Amino acid sequence: MKGQADTIGSAMRRALLGELEGTCITCAKSEKIPQEYSTIVGIQESVHEILMNLEEIVLSGNLYGPCNAFICAKGPGYVTAQDIILPPSVEIVDNTQHVTSLTEPIYLCIGLQIERNKVYDIKMPKNFQDRSYPIDVVFMLVRNANHCINCYGNDNEKEEMLFLEIWKNGSLTLKEALREESNDNKCVCIFKSSR
User: How far apart (Å, rounded) are the C-alpha atoms in residues 114 and 63?
Assistant: First the structure.
């Protein structure tokens, strides 16, 4: 009915942006990394660049508490998300995402911590004596959402149609995002997506 679409659209947008839980790499650990801004012989990128690449990897899956994963690769060659050894409940959305380039015949092994949470997690600097490096992550599955309203019908019985525009990170479909957001409430949706 008239006036309801804006209320529902605003609530759905807020829920899509703030209530959906995502899965991300939150920490990297390696005995060969002396500090975050160092470089390692045989690795093209700096440690900081590797951490930034790990931050961009999109994961999907249901976790209950933190879990461990590993990157194990031998050079020379490219290390991609495909080289990450994950627990069975987690999947990588794009296996081709770049992590680092090994320029010499060295063996790279990095331990990773994976967590599930909402919105943002900004890690505070700490003592890195255990060779563990936190990663600032965005857990948001939906990166942006807008809504608009189309009115139709005559003056006596005007009705509204709500349109949602959703930008997602690729770890879930539009139907899954709305299903999780609406928490199984009755909702009729028309989907049109190029991805």
Answer: 9
Among candidate residues 80, 77, 87, 140, the one with its CA nearest the CA of residue 112: 87
User: Domain 21-134 carries which CATH code?
Assistant: 2.170.120.12
Q: pTM for the whole thing?
A: 0.74
> 44-92, pLDDT tens digit by residue?
999 889 999 999 999 988 888 889 999 989 989 999 999 999 999 899 9
In the chain, CATH 2.170.120.12 covers 21-134
Percent over 70 (pLDDT), the chain: 85
- For the chain, the DSSP string reads -TTHHHHHHHHHHHHHHHT-EEEEEEEEE-TT---TT---TTBSS-HHHHHHHHHT--EEE--SS-EEEEEEEESSEEEEGGGEE--TTEEES-TT-EEEEE-SS-EEEEEEEEEEEESEEPPPP---TT-EEE--EE--SEEEEEEEEEEES-STT-EEEEEEEEEE-SSS-HHHHHHHHHTT-----------
Of the candidates 16, 56, 3, which has an alpha carbon nearest to the alpha carbon of residue 143?
Answer: 16
